[in-house]
Amino acid sequence: MKIDAIRRSYAKDKLDLDKLHADPIQQFELWLKDAIAAELPDPTAMCVATVDASGQPSQRLVLLKDVSADGFVFYTNLGSRKATELAANPKVSLHFPWHPLERQVIVYGTAERVPSSQVVKYFLSRPKESQLAAWASEQSRPVSTRQALMQKFAEIKHKFEHGEVPLPSFWGGFLVRPHQIEFWQGGEHRLHDRFMYRNQSDNNWHIERLCP
């Protein structure tokens, strides 16, 4: 399979400093609205990168569930690989790959646990099947077969057949507080537009253009 000649041009848009909002969170929200309006598949999907004790990075796609002036929120099993790695090293990177719009956003920050009251509120808003799956799956742990997983799901479904599904003690959320956020817009001849926001000691954001 020959793949070295696969390429395309990027010419949908340009990004200039005067087009950028002074606040990167508000700029992110503008781009997220564009991704939703364009009906992209999973516009809130982001790649979450963490690092283990040996320095080995790992990545996975997770859905963004909230964004505010404080940062970016996602939820997960607290026994999962990403959660255990974040417990040891809270430094994290998020990547939003909006390829059809020829845009990317990369967030560099530090993760902290979301308050339990917020976790409960979100968990109870999920479809019941998703709540049950959270109980059934020991995320990142080995499982012998898919049939074994489905059997566990059936048992959990029967257990909570009547009434509300309670929040598992092993399930929670993380808030990623950003200190750098990069916005990338594809450009012609690989001369892409890249701007990096860096949080300063006075909590204001400094913006600079980066070479593509």
From TrEMBL:
Cofactor binding, per record: Binds 1 FMN per subunit.
Domain of life: Bacteria
The EC number(s) this enzyme carries: 1.4.3.5
Biological pathway: Cofactor metabolism; pyridoxal 5'-phosphate salvage; pyridoxal 5'-phosphate from pyridoxamine 5'-phosphate: step 1/1; Cofactor metabolism; pyridoxal 5'-phosphate salvage; pyridoxal 5'-phosphate from pyridoxine 5'-phosphate: step 1/1
SUPFAM superfamilies, alphabetized: FMN-binding split barrel
Positions of transmembrane segments: none
Residue sites binding substrate per the record: 7-10, 65, 122, 126, 130, 190-192
Pfam families in the record: PNP_phzG_C, PNPOx_N
GO MF terms, alphabetically ordered: FMN binding; pyridoxamine phosphate oxidase activity
Enzyme class: oxidoreductase
Binding site for FMN: 60-65, 75-76, 81-82, 104, 139-140, 184, 194
Reactions the enzyme catalyzes: pyridoxine 5'-phosphate + O2 = pyridoxal 5'-phosphate + H2O2; pyridoxamine 5'-phosphate + O2 + H2O = pyridoxal 5'-phosphate + H2O2 + NH4(+)
All copies of domain Pyridoxamine 5'-phosphate oxidase N-terminal, residue ranges: 32-158
Cofactor(s) listed in the protein's UniProt record: FMN
Keywords, sorted A to Z: Flavoprotein, FMN, Oxidoreductase, Pyridoxine biosynthesis
InterPro entries linked to this entry: Pyridox_Oxase (IPR000659), Pyridox_Oxase_CS (IPR019740), Pyridox_Oxase_N (IPR011576), Pyridoxamine_oxidase_dimer_C (IPR019576), Split_barrel_FMN-bd (IPR012349)
Pyridoxine 5'-phosphate oxidase dimerisation C-terminal domain segment(s): 171-212
GO biological process terms, semicolon-separated: pyridoxine biosynthetic process
Family, as annotated: Belongs to the pyridoxamine 5'-phosphate oxidase family.
Quaternary state and interactors: Homodimer.
Job of this protein: Catalyzes the oxidation of either pyridoxine 5'-phosphate (PNP) or pyridoxamine 5'-phosphate (PMP) into pyridoxal 5'-phosphate (PLP).
Protein name as catalogued: Pyridoxine/pyridoxamine 5'-phosphate oxidase
